[in-house]
Design brief:
This protein is mostly helical and about 140 residues long. Helix content is about 80%, strand content about 0%. The chain has a domain of about 100 residues. The longest helix is centred in the C-terminal third of the chain and has 32 residues.
Length: about 140
Amino acid sequence: MKSFYLFLFTLLAVSGIQAQTPKEKIEQYRIAFITKELNLTVEEARLFWPVYDKYRADLESLRANNKQDLDNIDYTKLTEEEAEKKAKEMFAFKQAELDLQKKYYAEFRKALPAVKVLRLVKAEADFRQKLVELLQKRQGQK
């Protein structure tokens, strides 16, 4: 029951705050969605959200610093050496991302049971899917 009240409070707080940017709105909906999906207690939420915010900031920083952009490579002019270098950069980035996830798994476990940490992975994927569907729906309406 506590988690229901926490979710309701979060939802009311999110809906009562007018976000200044679409990114802020998305983050507010992310908080409400994850809180609901993980069924966080008040104590779990208190411990979880600061760690999650740090994780998201570190992940965003890692991705921003990743110079690997496979979409912008002219494959017709790429030499074998350049391709080898790009592949190694890609693997290094993916390893860094995995290392970050492992690090934060341990941090999340200090706040949540393993089942909820695992559910977090699914909740994030579900949230991304809902965002994609919403964007597709909005584009279809225009």
